[in-house]
Queue: 4 jobs
Job 1
Amino acid sequence: MDIDVFSPRELGTVFNALRTSLNPGGPLALDEKVFLETYAGITGYALPPGGPMPIAARDVAIEGAHARKRLIQLCAIAAMLARPVRPASVAFVQELARHLGERDTVTDVLEALVKGRHLSIRMIAMRRALRAMTKEAYRSEGAMGVVRLLGAMFLKASVNRDKLWNYKRLGLLPEGTLGREYWKHLTQNGFGAPGEPGGIPESVAYHDVGHVLAGYDTTPQGEIQQGSFQAGNRREDGFFFLQFVILQFHQGVKVSPATGAQTGCFDPRAVLWALHRGAQCNVDITHQWDFWPLMALPLEEARARCGLLGRLPMALAA
C-alpha cells in the first residue's frame, strides 16, 4: 500500500482533501496538524502558510484509479483520527468516493462508526481480512492451508505440527541473528510457534517475524505500528491491515477476539511513517515470503537485505 503515489501538481488538492477529512468545519487539533506535517515530509510537499484549506468533494480531481482509491483510503484514516469520528468528516469521505467513482468498504466502516454499530464494523473488517488471509493460506498450502488457518484462529487448534522443530531450533542460532531474536520474541511473549498448542499457522508466521525485523513491540502502540507497516508493505489490498489496527487499537472496536480493544493509540507520525517504511521494502513479507534464508543472518544484515528504512527520521520525529 504505497502512499507516495500522487503527482506534484496533485498534492495541493490531496492535502486539501486530507485537511477536510480531518475536520471540515473547524480548526485542526495538534495531532491533526501532525498528520498533515508528517505526510508532507513523506511526499516532499511544502505546506502553504496557514496550512491546506477545506475543499468540496466535487472540486477534487485525481488521475488514475490507483491514486483515486488511495486518496479515499488516506482520507478515511484521516477521518478515523478523531474519537468519536466526526459525522461531517465521514460525509465528506463518502461524497469524495462517489465523486471519484471508486468503491471501498471503508466508507461502510465509517458510517457504522458514526452510528455506533460495532458488530457491523467487525463483520465488514473481518470479511476483508479473511478474504486476503485465506487467499494467502491457499496459495501456500492449498485447501489444507485454509483449514489450518481457520482452525488455529477460531478453534485454537495445533496446526503445522511437522514444522514445529524448525522453529524450536531457531533458539540454537547465535545471539543477534534474526532467527534467534524471533525465537526470543516468541518465548518472552509466551506466543506459540506453528505446531504448538495455541500457535499460529505457518501462513501468518510472517507477522511476528515482521515484529522483530521492523522493531515494533507487542504493546497496543507497537501493534498499530506493525499493522501499519504490514499495510504499507503488502502489494495487494494492504489497507485491511491498517483498517484493522486503527479500529482495534484506536477506535476501541474489538475486531479480533485474540486481544482486547484499545483507544487512543493512533500517533500520526508513527503510523504514517510505518506505512511508508513498509511500502519502501523490496520484499512483500505478507505474500508467500520465504524468511528462512534470512534467519541465520545478523538482524541488521537481514534488515538491509529487505531494504528496511529506519524507525523514524529526525526530520519527522519532532
Job 2
Amino acid sequence: MLEEPTVPAAMRELFADLADDEERLQVLVARLAEVISQAIPEYRTLPDEVLLAGVRHTVTAGLGSAKQGRLPDSDELRGIAEIIADRARRGLSLAAILDAYHLAGQEFWTIVAQEGRRRGFTDTELLPMIEIVRRWIDGVTVAAATAHHQVGIDSAREDEARTGAALRALLDQPVRAESAGVHLVQLGLDPIGHYAAVRGRAAEGVTAPALREGFPPGSSVIAVVDRDVVGLLGAAVVVDERLGTFGVGPLRPAAELYESGVTAGRAFAAAAQLHRPGLHTLDELRLAAVAATDPEMAKIVSDRLLAPLRDKGRYGDDVWQSVVSYLRHGFRVDETAAAMHVHPNTLRHRLAQFTVLTGADLRNPADIAETWWLATVDPPD
C-alpha cells in the first residue's frame, strides 16, 4: 500500500479554493480540454460535451483528494475507469489516453503552481504539490491501462460471440439462400462465394487469437466457444496439428453450408476418435471415419476377435499386437518381425494362434476387414 503524501495545510486550502470556485473550475476544465484536443488528434473525434464532462470528473476527483492530502480512493478510481472504458469503446487508443493524462497533468501543475506563487509559495514549498500531482497521475495511469485492457477483452469476447452466432446460424440448421447470404456478409465474406465448414476442438491451452492466427488470413473465419471450434474456409489450408483436431466439409454455396457442416462434424468426430490432430476431411479418412463412428459394430467385431484374446492375458495381447503390426506392414512377415524385434517364425506362430483362438483367417478378405476395423479404432471395453 502506497504511503499517503504529506501536503501542507496551505496547499490543501489552495486545492479546496479551486474545487469550490465554480467559475475558476470551469476555466480550468476548459483549458485542460483545449490542451488535450489540440495535442492529440484522436480526442478531436469526441463531442465537446463528452470531453468536457470527462475532464471535469477527473479534475473534481483530483482536487477532492488533493485538498484532503491523499491519493485517489477506490471510488474515485472506479469513476475514472468508467470514463476510460467509454473512451476505449469510442475507439481511442490507450496511448492517446495516457498522453492525455500526462499532458493534462503537466498543464494542471503549471496552473496550480502559478496560483501557489501568487499566494507567496516558494519553489521549495511547491515540491510537495509536484509530488502529489505526479503520484496522482501515476495512480490514474494504472487505472486507465487496466480499464482500457478490460474493454479490449470484453470487445473481443463480444466479437467472438457475434461471429460464433453467425457461423452457428449457417451450420446448425438449413437456412434459405437469402438469409445465408446475410450471415456471410456479417462475417465479412462474399455472399455468393463457396465455403467449406469447419468443426472441431482446440487443443488444451490454445487461445482463440492463436487459433485464428493458425488459419491463413483472407477467406477464413474461425470462432471458438468453450473450446468448440466453428468456421468457414474459402480454400484448402494446412493447419498446425498442435492447434487441435478439426473436420472440414466440402465447398458449398451459402444455402448448402448446413450440409457442409454436417460432413465437417462427422470428420471431426472420426478424427477425434482416431486421436488424429490437425485438419481432416471424410475423403481423407474414408472407411476409418465409418469405423471410428460406429461403436455398435465395433463391439460386435470386438466380441468376436478380441474377447478370446483377452482370455489369454498378456499372451493374447502379444498376438493382437503382432496381427496389427502385420496389417500395418502390408502383410510382410520379415518386415513386421524386424519392426517388432522378434524372429519371423515367432511372428508366424502368433498369426497362426490368432486364427486358432478367434477363427479369423488373415487370408479371408472379410476377416481382414474386421481385423483392420478394430486396429483402426479404440476397441470397446
Job 3
Amino acid sequence: MKINHVVVIGSGTMGIGIAAQLCNANIPVTLLDLKTEICKKAKKRIYESKPPLLIDKSKIDEIKIGTIDQNLDTVRKADWIVEAVVERIDIKLNLYEKILKERKKGSIISSNTSTIPLKVLSSKMSDEDKKDFCITHFFNPVRYMGLLEIVKESFNDLDKINFLKNFCEENLGKQVIICKDTPGFLGNRVGVYAIQVAMTEAIKMELSVDESDALYGRPMGLPKIGAFGLYDLIGIDLMADVLKSFLKELPTSDVFHEVAKEIPLITHLIKNGYTGRKSKGGFRRINNKEGKKVLEVIDLKTREYAPSKKIKFNIKENVSLKDLVSRNDKYGKYTWSVVSKIILYASSLIPSVTKDYNNIDEAMRLGFSWSRGPFEMLEELGVKFFVEKDKNLKMNEFIKRLYENKSDTFYGKRQIYTDLETLGKVKQIANITSNKSAFIYDYSIYKIVEFNTKANTLDYDSMDALKKATDKNLIIINEGMQFSAGVNLNYVMEFVKEKNWKAIEKFIHHFQMTCKQLKYSENPVISAPSGLALGGGFEILVQSDYVIAHTNIVTGLVETLVGLIPAGGGCKEMLWRWMQTEEAKKDPDFAPQKVFDIIGYAKTATSPVEAM
C-alpha cells in the first residue's frame, strides 16, 4: 500500500494543520468543507499563520480545495481520508455514510476526534469498513507538536494500523503512540487531569492565579503558561465541554470526577462572556488604563481583576523536583499535592489504559511539552521518598509493587541499540572527553561535539571544544529545545562588570578564529541543528560545510535585540550569500540593503527553506 493522495474534511484549526503538514511532506492533499469560501479563507489562514504551518509558503497552492457536497468524489482517489469536523457525533456519522459510498476499497479513514470513542464513531459501519477506520489524534499546532495518537480497536486491520503508523512517523515526522479506545486516550487523559488538579488545588489552598501558574510551569518542568493560562489559551468554554465529555465516558469510580466537578467561578466567567484569549478575557485580561495596556488577573475569591504580579519564590534556577516538593511553605505543599496526584493518577492507568508507562511519559512530553512525564517525575523523586513522604496517600498497585520490590529507580534504559557488526557483544562506542561547556565524542573517523550549557549558549570552553575537534571529520549536534541560543551574555557581562576589556577582546578573537577554522578546516564540518540556532549558534551553522537541519528550526542573527552586532562572521556570511542572488547581480545595493534589514530588525527564519 502507498499513500499518494489524502483528503482532509473540515477546515478548522486541526484540519488546516493536518493539510499543511501533508503539504510540507509533499503529499498531494485536498481540503474540503461546506463552502468554497470557507476553504479559501482556510488557505489564507494557513498562509498567514504564526507560527507558520507551512515550511515553504510558496507551496500554498498545492493544497487543493473543494466542497463536501460537490467534490466528495475526490475521496475515490484518496488513499487516506481524514475527518476533522466539529465534535458532534450526528454530523460525523452522516459524513461517514457519504464517505463510505464514495471511497475506494481499502483506503484508510480516520477521525481527528479527541473525545468521541472509536466504538461510537464506527457504530453504524459494516465489519469490512471498520477494518479501515481508526482515530488519528493530532496535537495542535500540528507542525510543531510531535505526538500523534492512533486509536485502534479489535476490529481493525493491524497491518493497516502499522502501515499508517510508519507513514506518519517517516513522512510527517510524528512520534506515534498506539492507544486503546479509552476516554481521552493517553495525552488528554493525563494532561487534562493534571490541569484540573493544578486549578482545583490552587483554589482549595488559596493560591492566586499568578502563584499557581508560576509553580505549575518551569519549576515543575512544565510549559511556562501554567494551568490557568492554558484554560485561557484553549478556551474556558471549550474546556468545560471537554470535562463534560470525560465525566460522561469515565466510570464514577475514576478519581477524574473529583477534579472535574463544576467550579462556580468558571460558570460565572462563561456566563459573562469571559471565555479566554478569544474573547474579552478569562482568568487574565488586558485592560486599558490611562491609555496604557495593563495585564490583569482575576482574584479567585472576589472575582475582581487586579494587575498581574510577578511571583518570586526564591527558587534556584535548576531546583530539583525533590527540593521543590520538600519546601515547608504553601508553595512546597501545593507542588507536592499536584505532583503526587498526577503521579498516582497516571500510574493507576497501568495496565488498563496502557501496559507501557513510557507511553504516558512520551505523550506528555510530545503532546503537552512537559520536560518529563509522571513516571520520570517519580523516578526523579525516588519511589521510597514518594511513598514515605505522605502516609495518607492512597497507593495503587503499580506504586505498591515498586515500593515492595524496592525499585527506587525503575526506568532503566529507554532504548537499546545493537551493533550489527558485533551482534550485541560489548564494544566501546566512543572515547569521551569534556570541558565545562561541551562533550567531545571520539568515534572512528569522526569527532562529535555536543554543548552542555544552559540553552547550549557559547563561551570560551564551547569554542575551544569545537577548535580541538576539527582534527577529524566534525559533527556538531545538540539534543533539546536549542541547538544554541548564541553567546552566553552573562559570561560576557561578568567581564564588563570587572571592566576586563582584554578578556572580552580575547574571547571575541577566539570566537572569530574558531568560526574561521570551522569554515576553512581540511576536514568536513557537519552541523545537525534542531530547535533554536540564534546569534553565535547561527554563525556556527553558516560556517559549516554541511547543515542537516530539522524542519522546524528557527535561525537568525538576533544580536541587535540586545544592542549588539554579530561578531562571529555572520554578517559577512549573510552578505556573501545574498550577493549570489540574481537581484544582487543587477543591483549592487540590493544585497547590503537586504542584509542590513535582516540583521537590523533581528529577523528569523522558521524553516530551513526560509533560511536558505
Job 4
Amino acid sequence: MWNYRVIKKGEEYGLYEVFYNDEGEISAHAENPDLVGESMEDLLAQLSMMKKDILRTMNEPDRVLEFDKIKFHPFCDDEEDKTEYPFQD
C-alpha cells in the first residue's frame, strides 16, 4: 500500500510517496518529494494549480504536449542570459 504524506525537512515541506508493509507501518518513502513548499498552504496552492491545468487539458485535448516534440524558445531576448534549464534542448 502507498499514499502521499507531507514530510518536513528543515524549513521545507514536501509531498512524498510513502510505502507501507502489510501491518500498515512505513517501510519506505521516495527519495525526493513530488512537491516542495515553504508551507502546507504552499503545497495546496501548487496542487490547485496542477488540478486546474489538468482539467483545462481534459477540456482541450490539443493542449497535451508530446515530450520529445516540444520546441523550446529563449526566455528573453537578452543574449547575455545563457542559463541552462532542465529538459531544454
